[in-house]
Amino acid sequence: MTTAQEADISGDELNKQRFQMLQDIAEELSGEVIFPTCFDVAARIRQALRDTDQPIRKIVEQISFEPLIGTKLMSLANSVAYNPSGNEVKDVKGAISRLGLETVRSTAMAITMQQMLRSRNMGGFEDMAKHLWDHSLQTASACYVIAKRLTRFNPDEAMMAGLVHDLGAFYMLYRATQYSALRARPDSMRHLVTQWHESIGLSVLSALGMPEEIIEAVRDHDVMRPIPPSPRSLNDVVYVGNLLVGGRQEWMHLEIDDAALESCTVGEPYLALQAEISAHTKEMSAVFG
Whole-model pTM? Predict the structure, then answer.
């Protein structure tokens, strides 16, 4: 089908393909999920990292099969955030030792998500994909800083939760590329993603074998509720982190009155962390951008 023919697709056909996509996703998530090839990398590395008794040599061997991940790990380990003394690591083993296994998991997942969004098959959705990637990096940084400064939760675990909180949206965009009407009218996906990405994301995270605490941390992250004065759970960290870096924009696509939106405005002590969050995001963007 040519571009001109796709542009002529009727509204009925567009709605039909939107419904068909959701139906296909539901069917796929109820059985064996077929992820883009790049997700196999993250799954293998997560499996290798699950066994905490496994010698680091084995982990290094697994990561060595994926030069891009090894290179990114070294770059991150030598960044200002992880190397304030300026003592550079020169191999993957040194990078893993400095970063810790949780950060290695997050890095592998970040690269996987980035590779999927940069796929040549994302035609028509590049702008949405770029915005989604930037927001994910910002949320990951916000969650890391909030957890580090205001809680006793593991900041690296919080960063992972922030990174994958919108994974359902990534997956929906990837699946949307398989429908001609949706490719022709990418803006028609915005409302659909806003409505469905959270529930789809939970299923995708479960299929990927993510820890239950990460899944619970991202649950209902777009459900409007009062801002906690201080985070009481990892779920609170993700909720506030998402809002702090622009998550409220998703609500603009829904029928929510201004008073309700105003009640969810993030204030102190979170606003005091913005400079540190921006610096951390800049570090992450330098590695993954």
Answer: 0.83
CB 72 within 8 A of CB 62: no
Classify burial at 94, counting beta carbons within 10 Å of its beta carbon; exposed 0-12, middle 13-18, buried 19 or more.
Answer: middle
Cβ-based neighbours of 59, under 8 Å, separated by 6 or more: 48, 49, 96, 101, 104
Handedness of CA 276, 277, 281, 282 (dihedral sign): negative
Asked if residue 227 lies in contact with residue 266, where contact means CB atoms within 8 angstroms, the answer is: yes
- Tens digit of pLDDT for each residue in 155-188? 989 999 999 999 999 889 888 888 888 888 888 8
pLDDT (average), residues 41-69: 73
* Cβ neighbours of residue 126 closer than 8 Å, sequence gap 6 or more: none
For CA atoms 12, 18, 21, 26, the dihedral sign is negative
Q: Do residues 95 and 77 lie in contact, with contact meaning Cβ atoms separated by under 8 Å? A: yes
The Cα-based distances of 112 to 46, 104, 155, 230 in angstroms read 12, 12, 21, 32
Look at residue 221 in the predicted model and tell me its pLDDT: 92
Do residues 150 and 231 make contact, with C-beta atoms less than 8 angstroms apart? yes
Q: How far is CA 108 from CA 32, 234, 280, in A?
A: 22, 21, 18
Q: Under a CB-based contact definition with an 8 Å cutoff, are residues 183 and 176 in contact?
A: yes
Using 50, 70 and 90 to split pLDDT, how confident is the model at 64? confident
Domains within the chain, CATH numbers bracketed: 9-33+122-289 (1.10.3210), 37-118 (no CATH)
**Unique residue bearing structure tokens 């300026």:** 86
